[in-house]
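Quick one - first record:
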Amino acid sequence: MAHLCYWYETQLPTDIVEIIERDLRQYDDAVQKSKIFSGEDKVIRNSTNAWIPTSSWIGGFIWHYVERANRENFQYDLSCIDGENLQYTQYRAGEFYNWHIDAGLQTCIKPNLIESSGENIGNQFVGLQGERIRKLSFALQLSDYSEYTGGDVQFLDNGNTFFAPKSRGTLMVFDSRVPHRVRKVKSGLRKSLVGWVVGPRWK
């Protein structure tokens, strides 16, 4: 049976995680209030983030594990990381991300096709064929669990909830349609690197 969520205790040496964090500090000045599809909504999400191009060596490191998880578990048709960007996210005391999904039918193009009518619009057909949707989400845990309290990543699966590991260097890969949240950070600072992998629309 395949799993909706998959993670690797990468056992990255502390030095490597610190190098990743050091490289990400160059983006600290670019950190802004996080937004959702509909814009900024502090009821749903309260955090900050900056965008990191996947041309960074860190993107290649993460892609290795995403492809491995997909090969071992999901078997999805994947294209690339969404927008060719990673999201460097920070949660301070009082910040959170309530229950949400990263992809769903509401994020897809709505066809406006009349079957067998000859009225199908060519450019819309091309748009639908070229559409890429989020299929997998991932998150690399950068902070050690001793550096903050709260901030647990929680998933919902068939009415049951479970928590992701908080070990530094852990990489979580999960179906983008799985409901999940980041519980409120009580103290300290939680840092992670997240992103989404897209592929052809479900058929």
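second record:
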Amino acid sequence: MAITKIQSESLNLSDTYDFTGTVTGAGGVNTPAFQAYLSSNQTITEVADVKLLCDTELFDTDGCYDNSTNYRFLPTTAGKYMVYACATFTTSTDTNMRNCTLMVHKNGVRVDMFGTNYRNSYVRNPQVYGSVIVDFNGSSDYVEIYSFGDTQNNANPDIVGGTNDKAFFGAYKIIE
């Protein structure tokens, strides 16, 4: 096959071209995928790792997220997935947050964490967001999100729920 050099002057950008060949190896789908959120506030025990209970699904393409029992994502297709989560922390008492963290657990073991530590200052209603790429085997690997909160006055913090922008958990397959 001969290769012809195309000069930019020879292209007429107003022309349309019919493609009659076949493209292979392109495209793909980002499924399984899901996103769920916390429907109402969830009180967590201060300075303890507590599972985030996102119970309302916005979407779940393949039914791989358990939104009522284990609150975990167990995809049935092997591959790499973008896993993301967000939580807004608050307290029901007149106190402030000192440390807020979200943790991604794969098969019960923490694989990543993201959060804030205000050390000697305190903040009201901080929001923590993060994402990580996780490799799944497509049969038994699962992922869950845990939260950790530390307050100024040793009060049990809440994760704010009720809308899909305050506390959520999601994942989707990356096209490889």
